[in-house]
Amino acid sequence: MARVGLRHLTVTIAGASALVGLTYLLDPFRNYQLATAAAYLCATAGLTLLIGLNGQVSLGHGALMATGAYTVALLPSGMLLLSVAAAVLVATLAGAVVGVAAARLRGPYLAGVTLAVTMVVPAVTTMADAVFHGDQGLSVAAPPAPLWVAPERWQAWQAIAAAAVTLFVLANLLRSRFGREWRAVRDDEVAAQLAGIPVARTQVLAFVVSAACAGLGGAMFAVLAQSVSPSTFSLTLSLYLLLAVVVGGLGSLAGAAWGALLLVLLPDAIHSVTDGLPLGPDLAQRLTGNLPLAVFGLTLVLVVLAVPGGLQGLLVRAVRRLR
Questions:
Q1: Cα dihedral sign for 83, 111, 44, 166?
Q2: What is the pLDDT of residue 288?
Q3: How far is the first Cα of the chain from the last one, in angstroms, to the nearest whole number?
Q4: 138 φ, ψ to 5°?
Q5: What is the pLDDT of residues 180-192, one digit of tens each?
Q6: Cα separation, 189 vs 200, whole angstroms
Q7: Checking phi first, is residue 140 left (phi over 0); if not, alpha (psi -120 to 50) or beta?
Q8: Which of 31-40, 130-139, 215-224 has the lowest mean pLDDT?
Q9: For the chain, percent helix, then strand, then coil, each to nearest 5?
Q10: Position with higher pLDDT, 289 vs 226
Q11: Which residue ranges make up each domain of the chain?
C-alpha cells in the first residue's frame, strides 16, 4: 500500500508540475479557463466516485458546490486556507445528512431526493436575503496574488493544487479497503452484506467523500469568480456535472478530468460558433444559454450507444490497439 501511495504521489506531483509549467505558455484568459477546469475537476472526481464506484446517482452536487462557495464568501477575507477548509467541512456535514437519507433510497427515489436538495439550496439563499443578499449574491475578497506572478496564473496554481490534492486522496482511497467495499456494494448489495460489509455505512461514506470534493470545488470556484450567487449553482450545473462524468468516463478519475475540460471548453466553443452566425441578439442569447446543454445531451446519447466507457475508455482502447 505504501508503494501504491508513493506512486500516486509521484504521478500527482508530476502532473501538477506539468500544469504549472503550462500556465507560463498560456495567456491570462486560458489560464483562467484552466483554473476553472481544475475547480470543476474537484467536483467531477468526487461525483464519479459516487456514481461509478458506488452506484449512487446524485443530481445535487451543484448544491453541495454552492455550500462550499457560500461558506468561503461568508467567512472573513485574508484566511483563504481556513476558509477553504471550513467550506470542505460544511459540505461534508451536508453530505452526511443527505447521505443518511440516500442510503435508504434507490434509483429514481435517490435521484429525486438529491434533485430536491438542488432546488432547496438556491431557494434558501434567496429567502435569507439579509445573510446571502438574495439574487445579487455575495462578493469574495480573495487574498491578492504575489507581485512576482500574474493574478490569473496565481489563480490557476491555487486551483491546480486543490485538484491535485483531491485526485491524490481519491486515488489512494480507491485502492484501499474503502474502494473495494464501494465496488462490492455497487456490484451486489446482498452479496456485499453477506460478506460482512456494512452497506448503509459504506454508501454514506461514499456520499460524504463526494460531498467534500464538491465543497472544495465550490470553494475554489468562488475564489476564482470572486462572487457567489444562486444562479451560478442552479440545476443546470448539477446536470452538467452528471453529463460530464458520464461523457468523460464513469468511474475513472481520468474520465473526470476529461469531463471537467468539456465543462469549460464546450460552452466556449459553442459561443464562438454562435458569434460567427448571422443571428439576432435574442436568438443568439437563447442559443448561448441552451445550446451547450443540448449538445451535452446529444453527446451523452452518442457516448452511451457507441462508447460506453466514455472518452477515457475510447482512449484506452486506442492505446491498446496501437500497442
A1: positive
A2: 63
A3: 29
A4: -120, 150
A5: 998 998 888 888 8
A6: 10
A7: beta
A8: 130-139
A9: 80, 0, 20
A10: 226
A11: 2-233
